[in-house]
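FORM 12-B: Structure-to-Sequence Request
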């Protein structure tokens, strides 16, 4: 009842719920006016700055975050959005994740509060038999996607850790992103290779993800500011869910670096240990 079996069941239900609702479009992120990659406009560092994005985030302290996850499977499309903050020193974040209406459009899901921590996902307002004041804890290393998809948002640090294995990186150009000049890079990364070189806190989840995705190769677009901080990243995954391939475009927008972000994990007494509905 408590244990790993229930956690896996709950995680699987979350993934199915998020992958089965209605159509949507990825939230606008304020980009405009991309400039071509002129030779004298290239930032120093090249592909290296992309592969080191996780290290720069860890050194940046904290930021606010906005996420968008667009899924498509079997002719059904769904967009899930989240907003919150991330404390990179503590490697922990808090997001308010909003699910779309049911396919009939008659009702809306309550927003889910999520806490993302090394190798773990905590969800409140989970539904499916979970009391409103309780949290569900899921071990990300037991999930077939390593929680890159299950929570409806990609953990910002894990998204950056994926870039450690970036290859075929090209510089697209500079542009304005919500008033900040950023450098746009495009390339692919490999989940399995990223797991091998990831920081210890992300290694277990990425190792699990390397086994569960339909394709290890993940195309990405990364936007870094003049200080090398990751301001926006978009990954395109192919994920297997109940025998179907789900195409996922996950976008993470980071801003307001240095903002106060205080996150505390729930005490054991507040974590639901009963049977989770399906």
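FORM 12-B RESPONSE
SEQUENCE OUT:
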């Amino acid at each position: 009842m408590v244990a790993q079996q229930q956690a896996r069941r709950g995680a699987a239900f979350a993934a199915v719920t998020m992958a089965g609702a209605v159509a949507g479009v990825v939230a606008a992120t304020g980009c405009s006016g991309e400039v071509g990659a002129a030779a004298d406009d290239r930032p120093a560092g090249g592909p290296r700055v992309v592969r080191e994005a996780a290290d720069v985030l860890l050194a940046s302290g904290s930021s606010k975050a906005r996420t968008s996850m667009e899924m498509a499977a079997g002719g059904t499309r769904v967009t899930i959005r989240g907003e919150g903050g991330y404390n990179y020193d503590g490697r922990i974040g808090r997001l308010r994740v909003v699910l779309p209406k049911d396919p009939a459009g008659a009702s809306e899901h309550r927003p889910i509060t999520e806490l993302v921590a090394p190798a773990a996902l905590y969800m409140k307002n989970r539904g499916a038999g979970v009391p409103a004041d309780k949290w569900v804890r899921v071990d990300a290393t037991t999930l077939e996607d390593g929680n890159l998809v299950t929570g409806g948002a990609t953990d910002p640090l894990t998204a950056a850790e994926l870039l450690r294995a970036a290859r075929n990186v090209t510089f697209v150009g500079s542009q304005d992103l919500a008033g900040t000049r950023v450098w746009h890079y495009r390339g692919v990364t490999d989940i399995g290779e990223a797991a091998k070189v990831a920081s210890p806190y992300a290694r277990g989840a990425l190792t699990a993800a390397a086994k569960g995705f339909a394709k290890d190769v993940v195309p990405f677009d990364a936007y870094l500011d003049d200080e090398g901080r990751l301001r926006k990243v978009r990954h395109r995954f192919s994920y297997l869910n109940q025998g179907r391939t789900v195409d996922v475009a996950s976008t993470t927008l980071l801003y307001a670096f240095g903002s106060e972000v205080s996150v505390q994990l729930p005490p054991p007494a507040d974590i639901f240990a009963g049977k989770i509905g399906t």
